[in-house]
Amino acid sequence: MLNYFSDLVGKNLGVEVYAQLFLYFGMNMVPVSLPLATLLACLITFGNLGEHAELTAVKSAGISLLRTLRPIFLFVLILSVGSFFFNDIIVPRANLKAYSLLYDITQKKATLNFKEGAFYNGIPNYSIKVNKKFPDGKSLKGIMIYNHSQGYGNTDVTIADSGLMETFNNDMYLRFVLFKGKNYSEVTGEDGRLGHEFVTSTFNESTVVFNLESFKLTRTNEGLFTGNRVMRNISQLGEDADSLQRMYKTVNKDAKNNIQPYYTYVGKASPITIKDSNYLPKGNYHNIPKTDARIASIALNNARNIRSFTQASVEKADTLIKEYRQYRIEIFSKFTQAIACLIMFLIGAPLGAIIKKGGLGVPVIVSITFFIIFYIITNLGMKWAKFDVVPIWFGMSLANTCLLPIGITFLIQAKNDSRLFEGDSIKMAFINIAKQVSSLFRKKPVSVINEY
Known about the structure:
This protein is of the alpha+beta class. 55% of the residues lie in helices and 14% in strands. A hairpin with an 8-residue loop joins strand 3 and strand 4.
């Protein structure tokens, strides 16, 4: 939303509109934030249990760690299923509401903001300049109003020494009460041409009313935004992807059928491929016999037509296949984001039991670290899938596939009461490494045999 920050401020939208906008975009972020929330909650919970030796008491009662994790695993499983349906049903509707509202906000004009000594063109068909604004926000000095409603340029101008400005009827209209001024207008003739008559009028007080309907927040029909992929559920995305795939096959088939008439074969036909314009014949055809030059010119024109048509077909096919991949990526992302909750549970619960640190210190650092790794791998796999480096299913499941072995490893270590992250074990590990390194550089004793 920071990209649209300049379009959100200064438009007098009210708290309700901003609340709706943040609510809709907050719903959009729920499936993304649930894996991080699951990881952090598991780290804090099992870190506290380990820190206060409660896990030790549970194990001493004959209850294994896997049995302890079983009810929480079922809860996380239900949470993952709920995340999937939330991402498939609620998020597309929230995106539709959010982006349609954001579009209407960006189209809405900013509130009235007259700057001293500068022309203000926010009101349609009028250009207004105020030389001085007083602190009360209503009193003005040195007012100039150009009326462009007739469409003839600067042919109607009003100048006033001072005035008052106020809005009325729920800010639907703006009223200027002008004092001690003149109006200059150029009247058109019967033939519609300017310059036939000039009119000047003087007034002590005059009222000008402007319609501020263009400053209202008008809502666009949401049906115009439903075609975007972020506003579609899985079944709709599947239908769109199938349509794009059929269009891609049609473009390839039409390209082959339309190129075929350009070729005349004698005998058995062989496939012909035009790859690059550099293969076209070049040179001066003025010295070629007249008949051969005509044939060469026809052949060259045909080759150019084939190249232009082929390039257009290739660009269209590339666009369709890229869109197809984007839709398939959107489908797989709904599954992978739900499965990520389970993966983060498998990492967070045993890791919290291992590090035995609760609170918001170490768990927050560890959870953010793992989530950053998850985020980087997810984007990497998404880009690979987008550019057809790897299959779409593999690219979208890359992050979960990489983190699953880590979670299983932590689970095995926690089951075996590993002291992997405790200070004493880390200290002993460094001591053992130092001993191994020093042994490599230690000089071996040399035996000396004295012969008499």
